[in-house]
Amino acid sequence: MDAPQLPIGSAPDHSALGDADSGHALSSSRPIVVKTEGLRKVYRTGFWLNQKIVPLKDCSLQVHQGETFGLLGQNGAGKTTLLKMLLGIIRPTAGQGTLLGQPLGDRRTKQDVGYLPENAYFYDFLTAWEFLKYTAGLFQIPAATQRQRISELFDLVGLSQASARKKQLRQYSKGMLQRVGMAQALINDPQVVFLDEPMSGLDPLGRYQMREIILSLKAQGKTIFFNSHVLSDVEKICDRVAILARGELLCMGSLSELLGSADRYQVKVRHGNPEVLRRWIPDLDFQDNCWQGHLRGDPQDFLASLELMGAEMIAMNLARTSLEEFFVQQLRQRGIHTSE
Ligand SMILES: Nc1ncnc2c1ncn2[C@@H]1O[C@H](COP(=O)(O)OP(=O)(O)OP(=O)(O)O)[C@@H](O)[C@H]1O
Ligand SMILES: [Mg+2]
Asked: How far is the CA of 81 from the centre of ligand 1 (A)?
């Protein structure tokens, strides 16, 4: 059965924020914020419009309130295409979806949605302050609250207010523009934030700050949907991830669903009785003069048992693969080695 849809303007639930791993079970009981069913996009190109490009094929997914959802994929995988469709910037060729309980593209959702575009074009000759005032005006934020909101946002994204008042946007570096972009995405205190490559162009401190900003939005109960290439950041931030390749969703789930449990150990032991070892290591294998496999049971008890049988522990490592390894595996399994 579907989870209830979230009506526009309803207050976010701040009560039960899941951590990155237990997130899914918890969050799947919350209202659905983003839902797509068989979403597909076809572009026709060429002089006679006789060539077809299919950046997105039958994409079905759900994101629940308060979730941080990461969409991963190589260049050209279709991430921006999907994001733009969710925001109603481009229309799907087939399929349907809802955002905050309304059909994709419905104007009523705009007030509750923030968006940081991938390659944002800002008005070069406005100062950052003027630009934020302009976007605040689009959301009809009263002048009395604009000033405070804008200065809070510049503090949040780590930009000097003094230079934001003086410096025109054409004088900002790429990373600084990215921060301005983040500030404008939050000007309307949105319930749902769409971020297309938020770490792009940022230095290490900037990336760290961006991660902190995203985590603080998450702590406020906001729903965050973001595209990224930086898998280590995704691993630190996301409740759930999906991998998109050549327009197809390859897999989707919480990090523990995809990568395995964090407390699973890969062990390597020399000597010892294989009969006894097999009780601890069901997938026991003999390689390089050592017994190896995945440990089942309490590591302390296992160490005591090794001592009793006179075996020697050679290595014991957490068995969880990194998101990067998982990502590469998923693509290789499908024979995908290039971006297009
Ligand atoms: N307007 C368009 N007309 C024709 N093809 C398009 C159009 N927009 C995007 N595409 C194609 O759709 C595919 C997916 O593009 P998209 O921008 O969604 O990828 P992406 O996953 O966001 O990539 P990146 O990581 O580089 O941002 C690409 O092959 C791209 O060339
Ligand atoms: Mg993109």
From this structure: 6
Q: Whose CA is nearest to atom 2 of ligand 1?
A: 43
Q: Which residue carries 């994409």 as its tokens?
A: 59
Give Cβ neighbours of residue 99 (< 8 Å, ≥ 6 apart): 33, 34, 86, 87, 88, 106, 109, 113, 192
Please tell me the distance between residue 303's alpha carbon and the centre of ligand 1 in angstroms.
Answer: 53
163-175 pLDDT, tens digit each:
999 999 999 988 8
CA 118 – ligand 2 centroid, Å: 6
Lowest mean pLDDT among 6-15, 33-42, 181-190: 6-15
Per-residue pLDDT for 218 more than 50?
Answer: yes
Return the residue whose CA atom lies nearest to atom 18 of ligand 1: 78
Task: Report the pocket of ligand 1 as residue ranges, CB < 6 Å.
Answer: 43, 45, 53, 55, 73, 75-81, 118
What pLDDT, on the 0 to 100 scale, is given for residue 229?
82
How confident is the model at residue 40, as a pLDDT? 97
- Residue 48 CA to chain centroid, in angstroms? 38
DSSP 256: H
Q: Model confidence over 180-193: pLDDT tens digits? A: 999 999 999 999 99
Per-residue exposure over 38-72, b if at least 16 CB sit within 10 Å of its own CB, e if not:
ebbbeeeeeeeeeeeebbbbebebbbbbbbbbbbb
pLDDT band at 202 (very low <50, low <70, confident <90, very high): confident
Could you tell me which CATH number the domain at 23-259 has?
3.40.50.300
Q: Where are the domains of the chain?
A: 23-259, 265-318
**With the C-alpha atoms ordered 230, 231, 236, 241, is the resulting torsion angle positive or negative?**
positive
Q: Please check the confidence at residue 8 and state whether its pLDDT lies above 60.
A: no
Q: Shortest CA distance to 319 belongs to which of 337, 296, 291?
A: 296
Instruction: Specify whether the CB–CB gap between 41 and 137 falls below 8 A.
Output: no
The Å distance, Cα 76 to ligand 2 centre, comes to 7
Q: What is the pLDDT of residue 56?
A: 96
Q: Measured between alpha carbons, how far is residue 117 from residues 130, 183, 185 in Å?
A: 19, 12, 9
> Residue 240 — φ and ψ, nearest 5°?
-140, 150
